[in-house]
Amino acid sequence: QVQLVESGGGLVQAGGSLRLSCAASGRTFSSYAMGWFRQAPGKERDFVAAISWSGGNTYYADSVKGRFTISRDNAKNTVYLQMNSLKPEDTAVYYCAARAVAGEPNKEGLYGHWGQGTQVTVSS
């Protein structure tokens, strides 16, 4: 089992940056692939980025490619999402998720553990 707690959300102007963190409990963090998803008001939850258990492979939604960077520090049981050049359409609740099974990194249903979410608001 792993428990996830996100932090780092907030209000930022368009063009600004934020770094989200997701701290995981448990000693098996390094065995999980990790992902970030987001849900805007009135919309479904969407894939943002994912990283393999080793950190050697990363995946991004087209909408954030080149602006967001996912990384992890297995020694600290933490995964990060560096968000640059933020746009108002990035406004959403951002969720961290852990996946123990193989499969497409953007498939929400493969992630068995979720955090409570952190709000990111980008003003124009």
Task: Provide a short characterization of the protein structure.
It contains no helices and 11 strands.
Task: Determine the mean pLDDT.
Answer: 96
Rounded to an integer in angstroms, the radius of gyration calculated over CA atoms is 13 Å
Structure summary, number of beta strands = 11
Q: Give the biggest sheet.
A: 7 strands, mixed
> Count of helices?
0
Considering DSSP H and I runs of 4 or more, what fraction of the residues is helical?
under 10%
State the main characteristics:
mainly beta; 0% helix; 11 strands; 4-stranded antiparallel beta sheet; 7-stranded mixed beta sheet; 124 residues
What order do the helices and strands come in, and which of them pair?
Elements: E1 4-7, E2 10-13, E3 18-24, E4 33-39, E5 45-51, E6 58-60, E7 68-73, E8 78-83, E9 92-99, E10 113-114, E11 118-123
Parallel strand pairs: 2-11
Antiparallel strand pairs: 1-3, 3-8, 4-5, 4-9, 5-6, 7-8, 9-10, 9-11
